Amino acid sequence: MLVTVSRAVLLVLMLVVAINIFLTASQALDLEHREVAKIAMGAKGYVSDEVWYVDAARNILRKVFGLVPRMDVPRATLVYPDKDLAKEASKQASSYGVKVVSDLYTEIPAIYVEAKSIESIERFARATNASDIVFGWMLGDAEGINEYLNLEHPPMAKYIIALTMVLLGDRPFLWRIPSIAMGALLVILTFILTLEITRSENLALIVSALVAVDPLVRNMASIALLDIYVATLTALAMLYAVKGRLRLCAALIGFASTFKFSALLGIVPLLLYVLKRVAQTTRRFIDALFDSIYYLILTALFFTVFQVATSIPLIVYLGLDTWVNNSILNAISWHLSIKCVGEGCPQPSAPWDWFFGLNIFPLYIENGRTIAASGIVPLYAVTFILMILAPPYLAKLRPRSRDTWMLLTGLFLGYVILWLAGAKTQYSFYAVHLAPYIHMFLVSICFELADRGRLLELFNSWVKIFTYLWGVVLQLFEE
């Protein structure tokens, strides 16, 4: 069914999206200013895991595609075989008409320079025996970062960041523009998805407004990480699941996995919609089983096709065997493993921690100010409790909030399954994947429970459950 939206609602939605863009763009620009101001103290401009994804994007751009970022002033990181050569090159730079912007590297022997021409930098690099020249913004300070391609994650987000470097330039704010756009699109998709489920313009506006100002969404949309892409594309996939177009949902999940494998967790809510379809038609277990297997295989096929298609440049560069081993087999093993633990590692969190603000991942820390990967904790906590309590109420009354519960619970269970499978080092910023459905479920069920009769039904359903369980306990001890 086509849902029409009034002009007034569209105007309000446009305002909500504009507010979201303003908040995320302002923060992205502020983070750039803060980091640039600290270059003399060793800052490199990257926030959190940007150092891996952005540097990998730049390396893919130059190694795989043979291109360099757009530059108003030619700049490059020169990498040397050892620190002594890097230090000596820094001393000689001025005699070659080259300015050293920063030589504060500890993990990699490198200096960051600028000159009037690319040729001047290349001539200086040859004269000082540099082993690598990386044009664009300065490399992060990590061992081997000039060779790093981030093969444990699929390439699509890096392609987009690299394209931004070519079209717009290579500096922190510009890397983040695609993330800002994804955050805005997530707000719009949340509105459309909520409207599709609830048929209420008011509820859709409330939910989209909450997503627009949610600090987790805002923070993740203001930096160049992968998860905001996954959240947005998953929302698009779930829209088609709600519409009953399950094959297209499977295709979109497969495509979203080219940004990060965690998009595959969308299979769980997809399977819940498969069960819903069977429950409304044949109601036979064998149909539910075979349909579930069909959609699992279909999603796996889409995953394979999209992974190969988007990785063709990398396959040509690396070779098929190397790509399969690193980008598929080792990547799956890496995702299911316990990664960085102990001193110097970020605090991991279990999926249920995300709802209560426990073990929060700090995205940025400066002078006591912390930008944390955490949502609106009181709302998230209430949502978690209602998510646990809601099933008996949803099963009996079958309200519209049932679909929002399926989306939220499905994705949450996906992360729980991943955690049980061995991926114990999950981080709180993964919760941006759940954020739209947290607000969607909370608003829709609270609107329903404002009806006293429905609230009593929720309460009575649990009274009946506990009464039955108590009767079972008593029967165990009766003579």
Give a structural overview.
With 479 residues, this protein is mostly helical. It is 61% helix and 6% strand. It has a domain at 72-135: 2-Layer Sandwich (Alpha-Beta Plaits). The strands form 2 sheets. A 4-stranded antiparallel sheet has the order 2-3-1-4. Helix 2 (50-63) packs across helix 5 (156-167), helix 7 (177-198) runs parallel beside helix 19 (435-449) and helix 11 runs parallel beside helix 13. The longest helix has 30 residues, at 7-36. The protein starts with 6 loop residues before the first helix and ends with a helix. The mean pLDDT is 94.
List the helices and strands and how they pair.
Elements (H helix, E strand, L loop, with lengths): L6 H30 L13 H14 L11 E5 L3 H10 L6 E4 L7 E5 L3 H10 L4 E4 L20 H12 L4 H4 L1 H22 L2 H13 L1 H6 L6 H16 L3 H11 L10 H13 L5 H26 L1 H7 L1 H16 L26 E5 L2 E4 L4 H13 L1 H7 L3 H20 L14 H15 L2 H26 L2
Antiparallel strand pairs: 1-3, 1-4, 2-3, 5-6
Helix pairs in contact: 1-7, 1-8, 2-5, 7-8, 7-10, 7-19, 8-19, 10-11, 11-12, 11-13, 12-13, 12-18, 14-15, 16-19, 18-19
Distance between the termini: 59 Å
CATH superfamily of the domain at 72-135: Peptidase S8 propeptide/proteinase inhibitor I9
What is the spatial order of strands in the main beta sheet? Answer: 2-3-1-4
Number of helices: 20
CATH topology of the domain at 72-135: Alpha-Beta Plaits
Note the beta-strand portion: 5-15%
Uncertain ranges: none
The level 1 CATH classification of the domain at 72-135 is: Alpha Beta
- Number-wise, the strands total 6
CATH architecture of the domain at 72-135: 2-Layer Sandwich
The gross shape turns out to be elongated
| N-to-C SSE string, H for helix and E for strand | HHEHEEHEHHHHHHHHHHHEEHHHHH
Biggest sheet descriptor: 4 strands, antiparallel
Secondary-structure content class = mainly alpha
**CA-atom Rg in angstroms:** 25 Å
Mean pLDDT: 94
| Estimated helix fraction | 55-70%
